[in-house]
Design a protein that fits this description.
It is a single chain. This protein is α/β, with parallel strands linked by helices. The chain is 38% helix and 19% strand. The chain contains 10 helices and 14 strands. A 6-stranded mixed beta sheet has the order 1-2-4-3-5-13, with helices on both faces. Strand 1 and strand 2 form a beta hairpin. Helix 1 packs across helix 9, helix 3 crosses helix 9 and helix 5 crosses helix 6. It is elongated. The chain starts with 34 loop residues before the first helix and ends in a 6-residue tail after the last helix.
């Protein structure tokens, strides 16, 4: 089954050719591990993660208590790098020229498949780990160590690469790492993310493409009481731009999002402001829709600059493209999470991420939260350090590790997984960086 994004209420004729779905080839004639071996492997992975539980909990709390903004994750960089090194991984600090990126790699035997895993580390300004990246960090560590243990126990050749990925919250750390070759050679990449939701539920979700924009207005200062006509008010331009975008929202589709803030200022009230800066996030389900919406939002900025006689500078940062989950990996995860007494739902998300283009899986897992205490709220930051959140994270971690290892030696799995990726790629005609 293919799960597409919803809420396309356009009146244009539906293009069925663009959305045709073809099932991957069937490899049922090839051998697969029997149930007793699967159960043994699952038990081994669960036992390893249970053994690590207390130390992973300690890592999570330390990261949570030291929130660091994008590209400034110095404490988490050292903490996690040292931990992985102490568990037999070869660690490269400050990986590929990024001060707070790191790579932990372990290889058993010769050849085999290479699994990539991401551990995010960064927090949000003022509200700390309100997206639960402390849990994402330890989940990546747990998956990597569980797979290492299984490779050794069952003498399966393979490689595990855990990446410490900085700056998910607006900096595009994974995109930078992708462009510098960090994901080269990986057969698949996994990670998970906390979210609100029913107890013991996980979610395999799509995400919106996102373009971050800085809009800077340059005016002319003047005495606000004595000669305001000599000035050009940059703050007025910013407020006019904000109002224009608010009006634009009435004419955009329900699954499109535009959100922005005006950066703070220490200027005096009796001086006409000659500078104002805004940061905007523009989101849409696909890359093409994002491009069109970004043009409409930029027109709001241009109109505001024209109306106030200000000069405008627009800076577009590295975009996050829409995340498409690999259906073969998603099915394997759904089976694995059911073995952990969990449930899986699939739906489109209004969030965005900098995840990468290769067969990949990025499920979310529910943690207990207060009412209206979802991601990017102070209440979610409180939830992300609870014992209940840690338990939910460990269930998802076990399921991710169990998703990968039983398939690590099966050629049919990779043929099917790559096939699904290519079908989705050709149908969408987009490059997935996240």
């Amino acid at each position: 089954v293919f799960y597409d994004t919803c809420c396309d209420f356009g009146s244009s004729k539906f293009n069925t050719a663009a959305y045709q779905w073809e099932a991957p080839p069937i490899y049922s004639d090839l051998p697969s591990p029997n149930d007793s071996i699967r159960e043994e492997i699952r038990h081994k992975i669960e036992t390893m993660i249970d053994t690590l539980d207390s130390s992973l909990r300690s890592l999570s709390l330390q990261i949570h208590s030291h929130p660091e903004l994008m590209f400034e994750e110095i404490f988490a960089h050292k903490l996690l790098s040292d931990y992985m090194e102490s568990h037999g991984f070869s660690v490269t600090r400050h990986y590929l020229g990024l001060k707070t990126a790191w790579k932990a790699e372990y290889t058993h035997g010769q050849g085999g498949r290479t699994l990539g895993i991401n551990s995010e580390m960064d927090a949000l300004p003022e509200i700390g780990h309100a997206c639960g990246h402390n849990l994402i960090a330890i989940s990546g560590v747990g998956v990597a160590l569980a797979i290492k243990s299984a490779l050794e126990t069952y003498n399966v050749p393979g490689t595990v690469v855990l990446l410490g990925t900085p700056a998910e919250e607006g900096g595009g750390g994974k995109i930078i790492l992708l462009e510098r070759g960090a994901y080269k050679g990986m057969d698949a990449c996994l990670m998970c993310h906390p979210s609100p939701g029913p107890e013991l539920f996980s979610f395999v979700v799509s995400s919106l493409a996102m373009q971050s924009i800085d809009a800077e207005f340059f005016g002319q200062s003047a005495h606000a009481g004595d000669a305001p006509w000599e000035g050009a008010n940059a703050l007025d331009a910013a407020f006019l731009a904000y109002s224009s975008v608010s009006v634009l929202r009435q004419q955009i589709k329900p699954d499109h999002r535009v959100n922005g803030v005006i950066n703070g200022s220490e200027r005096a009230a009796n001086v006409i402001p000659d500078y104002a800066k805004m940061r905007w996030y523009v989101r849409a389900p696909t890359r093409d829709q994002l491009t069109k919406l970004t043009e409409r939002v930029s027109a709001c900025f241009e109109g505001a600059a024209l109306a106030t006689s200000c000069r405008l500078k627009i800076t577009k940062h590295t975009p996050y493209y829409d995340l498409r989950q690999n259906s073969i990996l998603a099915d394997a995860f759904s089976h694995a999470i059911s073995q952990e007494s969990g449930n899986v739902r699939q739906y489109p998300s209004g969030a965005s991420t900098d995840f990468v283009f290769l067969p990949s899986l990025h499920p979310a897992f529910a943690i207990p939260t207060q009412p209206n205490g979802g991601n990017h709220s102070p209440a979610f930051a409180d939830s992300a350090r609870t014992t209940e959140a840690h338990k939910a994270c460990m269930i998802a971690t076990k399921a991710l590790a169990c998703t990968w290892f039983p398939c690590a030696g099966r050629q049919c799995f990779f043929h099917a997984g790559v096939y699904c990726l290519l079908v989705d790629f050709n149908r969408r005609t987009v490059v997935f960086k996240c």
